Amino acid sequence: xxxxxxxxxxxxxxxxxxxxxxxxxxxxxxxxxxxxxxxxxxxxxxxxxxxxxxxxxxxxxxxxxxxxxxxxxxxxxxxxxxxxxxxxxxxxxxxxxxxxxxxxxxxxxxxxxxxxxxxxxxxxxxxxxxxxxxxxxxxxxxxxxxxxxxxxxxxxxxxxxxxxxxxxxxxxxxxxxxxxxxxxxxxxxxxxxxxxxxxxxxxxxxxxxxxxxxxxxxxxxxxxxxxxxxxxxxxxxxxxxxxxxxxxxxxxxxxxxxxxxxxxxxxxxxxxxxxxxxxxxxxxxxxxxxxxxxxxxxxxxxxxxxxxxxxxxxxxxxxxxxxxxxxxxxxxxxxxxxxxxxxxxxxxxxxxxxxxxxxxxxxxxxxxxxxxxxxxxxxxxxxxxxxxxxxxxxxxxxxxxxxx
Length: 404
Fold this sequence. Notes:
The chain is α/β, with parallel strands linked by helices. It has helices spanning about 15-25, 45-50, 65-70, 135-145, 155-165, 185-200, 250, 295-310, 380-385, 395-400; strands spanning about 5-10, 30-35, 75-80, 85, 90-95, 100, 105-110, 110-115, 125-130, 150, 170-175, 205, 210-215, 220-225, 230-235, 235-240, 245, 260-265, 275, 280-285, 290, 325-330, 330-335, 345-350, 355-365, 370-375. It has three domains: about 5-115 and about 245-310, FAD/NAD(P)-binding domain, CATH 3.50.50.60; about 115-240, FAD/NAD(P)-binding domain, CATH 3.50.50; about 330-400, 2-Layer Sandwich (Enolase-like, domain 1), CATH 3.30.390.30. It is about 25% helix and about 30% strand.
């Protein structure tokens, strides 16, 4: 290393690894330290509830870079280590042994933690969440033993785990407080598509329903008690009620936070020497004109290039549209754009809804496209992206004979 600049990255997931890559790709020749809480090399998380859970991919298949890459690029990768405090004035981070590490620029990529349910029985040993490779491996082992599981929450993780469990011939009951799955993400029109999909594969949904207790016997969960007093028996329970961003370090350091760490279009926080990326970054989006925080793989993959440029003093702006995907049974889906509840006036469907081969568009009252989702229709993501923000004729948009 020839520069005396020291860049520190706090986090050990995809965003942290990609940020280290981007710094070296931009010819940064100073010291780079990555501080990762897990003992594993940084890896991608989507396979944990998809291909890995289905037995199709091993950890090595979705590890971002091999150990040799970090050595070859002179990255000081500290696994199994956390940062306990940040001092923005002294420009240091504190490690668990109370030693400090100085930084010139700091990046926060601390990710999220699964939310728990504050009800009796939630701490039983066979009540699970899914965030790490260890969690995914535990569920794989569970599928080989359990006859029936209850999943609390019908979001992406809950549904993807349900699909894997059904493939392993495990009986699945999903309990959800809303009236449909994915209601906040997709709205009722597309939420119904996923409800029908899972019912067709034998999943028992309990919508508009609260779990008041995880029933235990000898401190082991044996089912869940619902709001009406009835009990659904289970060999294990998965809690999949979302995740909370790990913003405590940032908040304790005095950085501006809200639902996440507040960043501008360049991903700089309220401290110009600190950037934030991935799950925790609540960004002022230059195209959408609003603050958004996106807990998806594409954000962790793509934001680091902008954050690296910002750390290096270059002008940069993260203007990509939100993107996420899922695979459940024989349904594959990609979603591009942003349509929050209340933002859109209608959903325009192009294709065959019954066969689950279609493209759906969320359109506002002025017939401007806010987002699009392709279901079992491929190679259209770029065309969907081009349509976002454009004013359209909804009837022509729904006409499969008219090119996108």
